[in-house]
């Protein structure tokens, strides 16, 4: 984004390279929320869909059944848009921060394996969006007075076709969010370790001490226990 003359330079406060390297982390909560939103839309529909059908699964209330699917698909597509906006950047950041050992074992090895198909899902969902954006753009000049009606129907068709990708992203996307969250919480290799940071912070907080004491007697360590660890 361009900056105004009064905007601070990227080097003020933090190097530009570090800022760019960490930028993808800010999108992780949005992706986690989007994956959860797709699952919620699916679960909400599954909870009522049987009420529109007979014992054999055939709709007995066709309008109610159709309206319910339209609502589910529209809600899910909103979350697909979030993945299209932020997913590629987070995916690139995750792959850059991942080591070979992460794929072999560890807390995110399974999630990393689930990411193998996410590129194709994002690409095809993006193509679907672009195709229907072009259709709707053509309506602007060719259907005066009735464009809104046809546009609503066009969006319903797009959302219906996009449900497959939404369903895939509820699986692949949640894996991406979990892996990204784990990697984002790793200590930056250029920064002191978390233990060192805690040790320095405790030393600075002691009245009259500005430096870490060379050795702490047992009594002092007992009276100043380490801060409790915070669960991630």
Q: What structural category arises from helix and sheet content?
A: mainly alpha
Identify low-pLDDT runs.
1-19, 190-195, 205-232
* Mean pLDDT reading: 78
Number of helices: 9
Percent helix range: 55-70%
CA radius of gyration: 25 Å
Q: Give a short account of the largest sheet.
A: none
Number of strands: 0
Please state roughly what percent of the residues sit in beta strands, choosing from under 5%, 5-15%, 15-25%, 25-35%, 35-45% or over 45%.
under 5%
Shape: flat
Order of helices and strands: HHHHHHHHH
Distance between the termini: 32 Å
What does this entry look like structurally?
It is a single chain. With 232 residues, the chain is mostly helical. The protein has helices at residues 16-22, 28-49, 62-97, 100-104, 109-114, 118-142, 147-184, 194-205, 218-223. The radius of gyration is 25 Å and the shape is flat. The two termini are 32 Å apart. Mean pLDDT is 78; it is low at 1-19, 190-195 and 205-232.
Provide a concise account of the structure shown:
The protein has 232 residues and is mostly helical. Helix content is 68%, strand content 0%. It has nine helices and no strands.
Topology:
Layout (H helix, E strand, L loop, with lengths): L15 H7 L5 H22 L12 H36 L2 H5 L4 H6 L3 H25 L4 H38 L9 H12 L12 H6 L9
Helix pairs in contact: 2-3, 2-7, 3-6, 3-7, 6-7
List descriptors:
disordered N terminus, mainly alpha, 232 residues, 9 helices, flat, single chain, disordered C terminus
């Amino acid at each position: 984004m361009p900056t105004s003359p009064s905007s601070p330079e990227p080097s003020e406060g933090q190097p530009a390279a570090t800022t760019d390297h960490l930028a993808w982390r800010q999108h992780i909560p949005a992706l986690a929320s989007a994956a959860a939103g797709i699952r919620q839309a699916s679960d909400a529909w599954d909870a009522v869909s049987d009420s529109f059908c007979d014992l054999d699964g055939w709709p007995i209330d066709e309008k109610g059944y159709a309206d319910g699917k339209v609502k589910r698909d529209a809600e899910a597509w909103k979350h697909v848009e979030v993945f299209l906006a932020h997913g590629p950047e987070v995916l690139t950041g995750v792959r850059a921060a991942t080591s070979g050992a992460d794929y072999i074992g560890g807390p995110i090895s399974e999630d990393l394996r689930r990411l193998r198909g996410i590129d194709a899902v994002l690409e095809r969902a993006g193509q679907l969006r672009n195709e229907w954006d072009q259709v709707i753009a053509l309506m602007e000049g060719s259907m005066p007075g009735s464009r809104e009606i046809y546009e609503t129907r066009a969006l319903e068709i797009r959302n219906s076709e996009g449900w497959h990708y939404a369903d895939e992203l509820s699986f692949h996307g949640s894996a991406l969010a979990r892996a990204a969250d784990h990697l984002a919480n790793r200590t930056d290799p250029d920064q002191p370790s978390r233990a060192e940071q805690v040790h320095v912070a405790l030393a600075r907080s002691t009245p009259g001490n500005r430096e870490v004491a060379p050795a702490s007697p047992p009594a002092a360590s007992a009276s100043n226990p380490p801060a409790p660890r915070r669960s991630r």
